[in-house]
Amino acid sequence: MEISVKKFYELTIYELHDLLQLRSEVFVVEQDCVYQDIDGKDKKGLHVLAKKEGEIVAYTRCFEPGIYFEEAAIGRVVVPKTQRKYGYGHDIMKASIKAIKEHYNEERIALSGQKHLIKFYNAHGFKQVGEGYLEDGIPHVLMIKN
Prior knowledge:
By secondary structure, the chain is α+β, with helices and mostly antiparallel strands. The chain has helices at residues 13-30, 88-104, 118-122; strands at residues 2-7, 46-52, 55-63, 72-78, 109-114, 127-135, 138-145.
């Protein structure tokens, strides 16, 4: 598996197509959630892509403080359904945390995690802050890594 960290303008048109297709496949179709995925923030973030044999097997986007949360942030954490048994989600989280440290010199990171993934994010040092909430009709929690 090969992991790369790219700014928006560094993505190839094929990578952009594939990551948007994956996000739509999981967040819109699989989770049956109608929401505006292309939100204007892609241009402002880092894109962390894990590829195996040319296919994206995990993805996140990361932001410097003040764009998504007051803290640096990780979002759109996604692994295709067929690839979830291989631990790629953990690999992409480790790479995303490292990318934030290297690119933004930040240790404190926030994310809006789906409630059923709390233990997954806990494994990477994130702790729930406050009560849960609905985001696009799906239960979420604010999580912070100090």
